[in-house]
Amino acid sequence: MTGSAGARRRPQRHLPLQIFLGFLVVYFLVPFWWVIVNSSKDAPGLFGGSNTLWFADQVDYFGNLQRLFTYDGGIYGRWILNSTLYAFAGGIGATILSVMAGYGFAKYRFAGRRFSFSVLLGALMVPATALVIPTFMMFSGLGLTNTIWAVILPSLLNPFGVYLMHVYARDAVPDEILDAAKVDGAGELRTFLQVAFPLMRPAVVTVLLLSAVASWNNYFLPLAMLSDNRLFPVTVGLGLWQGIASANNSGSTSLWSLIILGALVSVIPLVIAFFTLQRHWRGGLSVGGLR
Amino acid sequence: MTLLIEESASSTQEKTRKVRGNVRLREHLMGWLFVGPFGIVFLALLIAPLGYALYLSLWQKKLIGGTSFVFLGNYVKAFTDPTFLSGVWFVVRFSLVAIPLQILVALAMALIVDAVISLFTRFSRLMIFLPYAIPTVIGAVMWGFLYSKSFGPLTDIFGLFGAPAPDFFSKNLIFYGLINVVTWQWAGYYMIILYAALQGIDPSLYEAARMDGASSWQIALRIKIPLIAPALLLILVFSLIGTLQFFNEPQILRYLAAGTIAPGFTPNMYAYQQAFGLANFNYGSAISFALGGVVFVCVYAFLFFTRKRRSFF
């Protein structure tokens, strides 16, 4: 493990470390592998099958997919669409609010700025779940529970996004450029949209990703707010199915293969987004982590 | 003549003062215009619910006599309620094991991925981060399958050695079963944050240390870890806030581990059960608020003891 000058020039191999890392990778991938393999099986193959980590004789993805999307009047497809709607509406809304507020905090010395910013920092410590019960009570008074707004409105709140945008705008948008734009006759809004916004774009993408994923992953809030299962996001829907399947084990064995495939299908859009946008994830995380 | 000059001088001064005042006013106005929309959402969906929860938690609904003001009665009840206390004790115990474990795994992986540059470590970095893209609910569902007696692989794997499979849904092992789920879910995310921090270190520091004869281990322990301390602290705080609010995973695995995970297993599950299962919103709010208080105190105590508050924000 001693690094000499020669070892530095050649990439170091560290075989034991790489083998150790290999074991960890297997551990992190096992659940995915299990789901991929077992979503190809039918109920008898699932329960009677001898090998749980390998394919059965019959690989039936298409039959299972067809059953998944037609079960209970195609409710699963609705759940996926609902999740998409909640993720986009919540994500885009939260991002717009965060970008504006972060820029405002970073670039304007307005009265009450210091105080409101420290309130914001305090809010980072407020556990999100502590808000669910009182928000439910307030929304139920306004007749908003069991509507899409009950899920979308609370996901507009993203104090961490504001904090991140503040840090980024402060460091990546020089005051001189903004002043120059204003001297050239650009209004405040135009300066923001055409000068500052392009400079903040990497952080904007990150905040958008983080808040969209947060609303896609949300479980406690929609679980509390929604009672009509046609409004459920896919997380709450699969939780519901799992509850049904576990409650009467004998009668609903076929539901288990739907849950397994449902879990796999619901993960695919995220995995694709994750692989194609990974540069942006890391960029933003380093902003949040380093400062 | 002199008077005139003086007069004009004072009037220009006044004018600049006026202009400067306008600029200040404009600055205030624009600042609030940018922050305002978020401010409204913040007031409506954070401050108002918090205030409302506090208000609700001071009242009690009785079957006879309606709703009455009990001041801190619900909190006295909560902090003497064995279910709430055992829930708090569970999440505190869970945090004490889960957080150091996750951070150790994440730190080890980040150091390896940072030090060894190969195609395989690049691939590993992605794969280890992958669980973060999975909703915690789906992650719990997936591990529920793996733990299952009827179609999980544990029976087969332990059967190879002629041993009975461990039942992670039993009272003895559910703690470790949940620790495993949480570690799987979050270690990769923490690894990426630490990795990003490691990449930010100036490599000339390592060269200087090598000149002085430091080994790779010494560089990792004496240079890398101290320099990424702020990132470690950030992770610690986030995972502490998250773990004390533990809800999704036990709520999902509750169906499979019938009898092991009671409805009041964690404080958040207890609040949910009180509010939505028993329509006892006053007591549910009190539990939520008390849990929020516990989180706040824990985080602040932690930040106070590490005394790194300044470098964090």
UniProtKB/TrEMBL annotation, chain A:
Major localization listed first in the record, in broad terms: membrane
Gene3D superfamilies referenced in this protein's UniProt entry, alphabetically: MetI-like
Subcellular location(s) of the protein: Cell membrane
Any one GO CC term of the record: plasma membrane
Topological category with respect to the lipid bilayer: Multi-pass membrane protein
Segments forming domain ABC transmembrane type-1: 80-277
InterPro entries: MetI-like, MetI-like_sf
Keywords: Cell membrane, Membrane, Transmembrane, Transmembrane helix, Transport
A Pfam match: BPD_transp_1
TM region(s), chain numbering: 15-36, 85-105, 117-142, 148-169, 199-221, 255-277
Keyword Cell membrane: yes
A biological-process GO annotation: transmembrane transport
Signal sequence region: none
Family: Belongs to the binding-protein-dependent transport system permease family.
Name by which UniProt lists this protein: Carbohydrate ABC transporter permease
Organism classification: Bacteria, Bacillati, Actinomycetota, Actinomycetes, Streptosporangiales
From TrEMBL, chain B:
Annotated membrane topology: Multi-pass membrane protein
Main location: membrane
Pfam families named among the record's database cross-references: BPD_transp_1
Protein name listed in UniProt: Sugar ABC transporter permease
Source species of the chain: Microbispora hainanensis
The keyword Iron is assigned to this record: no
Similarity comment: family membership: Belongs to the binding-protein-dependent transport system permease family.
Superkingdom of the source species: Bacteria
Subcellular location: Cell membrane
Location of the ABC transmembrane type-1 domain: 88-304
Example of a GO biological process term: transmembrane transport
